[in-house]
Design a protein that fits this description.
heterodimer, A: two-stranded antiparallel sheet, 4 helices, 2 strands, 72% helix, B: 487 residues, mainly alpha
Chain lengths: 67, 487
């Protein structure tokens, strides 16, 4: 594997870890304080749903780059 | 005039006959190998493997349980959605490597993977026993879901035991005949059918009772605001519990033996990566399902069994009989497809990992044995479902902690050449004992930490230490699991 690909892969591991961290405390505790609703839905509802496009995009980019 | 419950029952019976027809389409006399029966000859493309997997994710637990959790705990139910989403990162990372090894060595089960990697019959046998102890109660829970649906929508005219028997009689037929290909046909149908029915039901329930979702959440925010924030209405999901249960679930999700075996069924690693990309979109179904539970918070008060809220909302919403029948059929399909995949994995585990080493059958005889074991596994699960319900719940509770103990082994198998059988067995036993002790022992869930995580850390530490103290594994095995140039 080339050095540049190794480096890109390293960045993707870091972003992946950040996504995992975003699903957990303490970021979650901040999100939880915004209440009761946003756009008519509970904030937690919107927050967790926002992971759908984030993950899809993240994994799609990784796939396209061959990681 | 025909009673409405008879009309609903007729719709469900039509669905069961349709399932038999669809599920047995996968049968072919030309396909006689165990690999064809259990993992569709390692040949499934994106659509088939995608629908099989999402059908396994959305079992009766999701269809009936998730609205129940939303009703009882509010937004804390999203813990399960977060687990499902983050687990896709593990799938993207680990899945293609498991698939490559599985296809190369013609592996059928998770126990088969561990037995081969570590050249250890003991570890393979241990993994097979743990898998069966987790899978059979899981099938029982699916049977209970099917029996419950029949009982509720026929106003109690079809007893629980008969409903479960009818649904799983059908499952037994198509798993026996069609194997994974048969399950695949039904999974594609179920994936689309369930999605449509859930969207229709959620729309009708919210529209009839509140007008729109915003109004529903506005009313809940006024009358029951604790349902909209953590730790939830029952104060169950503190941040520590949320975090550790999400991490445990994320690591353990694809360690369930039936989901692990799905990796083998894919034709190549790219199929698994594409599945990980597409699955988050299907996960939006989670959010639609739980809206039905939220709708029940202000309408059905003091429900003693929260998992009844889904069917209660169906029955209370004044829906046309045909629609009730179709929704009941969707609930049945959720139970049956997941149960079918669990059954297939259990038969492969029992036949290939526990019985074959004593019987030494030819490949075609082994396949035939696995087909007959379908009736044994479903029979056992059925007996458990009607007789030892409280014990089942206890076993399931422990299974969630124990299954995640396979994660350190799977990672070490594929990424650490020095990992040995002795280390793996010691780690698995230590992690499982810790997880079980902290689940049902005198000090459950210390400091609100999920027992599976403590078990996994113990497991990993012991695996590393014991592996370094024992003799390294042979090069022959290592070469199969580590492609040239990998670390």
């Amino acid at each position: 594997m080339s050095d540049s690909k190794k480096s890109i892969r390293g960045y993707f591991y870091v972003v992946g870890c950040l996504i995992i961290a975003a699903g957990n405390w303490p970021i979650l505790s901040l999100a939880n304080r915004i209440q009761p609703t946003i756009f008519g839905f509970p904030f937690m509802f919107v927050y967790v749903a926002s992971f759908v496009p984030i993950l899809t995009l993240f994994l799609y980019i990784a796939y396209r780059l061959g990681i | 005039m025909m009673a409405s419950w008879i009309s609903v029952l007729l719709v469900m019976c039509v669905f069961l006959f349709f399932s038999v027809w669809l599920g047995t389409r996968g049968y072919s006399n030309l396909r006689r190998s165990t690999a064809d029966h259990v993992v569709a000859g390692h040949s499934l493309g994106f659509l088939a493997i995608f629908f099989i997997s999402v059908s396994e994710f959305y079992s009766a637990n999701t269809f009936l349980g998730a609205p129940g959790w939303a009703y009882e705990h509010g937004v804390a139910v999203l813990n399960g959605s977060m687990v499902g989403l983050l687990a896709l990162l593990v799938m993207y990372w680990l899945g293609p490597r498991v698939q490559a090894v599985g296809k190369k060595l013609n592996l059928l089960t998770q126990a088969h993977f561990l037995r081969t990697r570590f050249s250890s019959e003991l570890l393979g046998g241990l993994a097979a026993v743990v898998a069966l102890c987790a899978l059979i109660p899981y099938i029982s829970v699916q049977i209970m879901g099917a029996g419950y649906v029949f009982n509720v929508v026929t106003d109690g005219h079809v007893p629980f035991w008969l409903g479960g028997l009818a649904a799983y009689g059908v499952v037994a037929i198509y798993v026996f005949r069609g194997g994974l290909r048969g399950i695949g046909y039904i999974a594609v149908f179920k994936g689309i059918f369930m999605l449509v029915m859930i969207v229709v039901l959620a729309t009708i329930v919210v529209h009839r009772n509140y007008g729109n979702p915003r109004e529903m959440f506005r009313q809940i925010a006024l009358e029951s605001p604790k349902n909209l924030t953590l730790p939830g209405a029952q104060n169950f999901f503190g941040y520590t519990w949320w975090t550790t249960s999400v991490l445990n679930g994320m690591c353990g999700y694809f360690m369930w033996p039936h989901l692990f075996s799905n990796f083998y069924a894919a034709q190549d690693g790219r199929v698994i990566k594409r599945m990980a990309i597409a699955t988050p979109v299907y996960t939006l179904l989670d959010f639609i399902i739980i809206i039905i539970g939220f709708a029940g918070i202000l309408i059905v008060k003091n429900l003693t069994r929260p998992d009844q809220i889904m069917m209660r909302m169906v029955m209370n919403s004044g829906l046309p009989v045909l629609l009730v029948g179709l929704i009941a059929a969707a609930a049945l399909s959720a139970s049956m497809v997941a149960g079918a995949a669990l059954t297939l994995t259990a038969t492969a585990t029992l036949g290939n990992d526990l019985m074959q080493k004593h019987l030494r059958l030819s490949d075609s005889s082994l396949k035939r044995l696995m087909q007959y074991l379908v009736f044994v596994i479903i029979g056992l699960a059925y007996l458990f479902s009607i007789s030892v319900v409280s014990t089942l719940q206890y076993i399931m509770l422990m299974a969630y902690g124990v299954i995640s103990q396979f994660f350190p082994l799977a990672v070490a198998s594929l990424y650490w050449k020095r990992c040995t059988a002795t280390g793996a067995i010691a780690g698995l036993l230590a992690g499982s004992i810790v997880a079980i002790f902290l689940t049902v022992g005198p000090y459950p869930h210390p400091h609100d930490i999920h027992p599976g995580i403590i078990g996994m850390l113990t497991n990993a530490a012991i695996l590393v230490v014991v592996s370094l103290k024992s003799d390294p594994p042979s090069n022959q095995v290592i070469e199969s699991f580590f492609p040239e140039g990998s670390t």
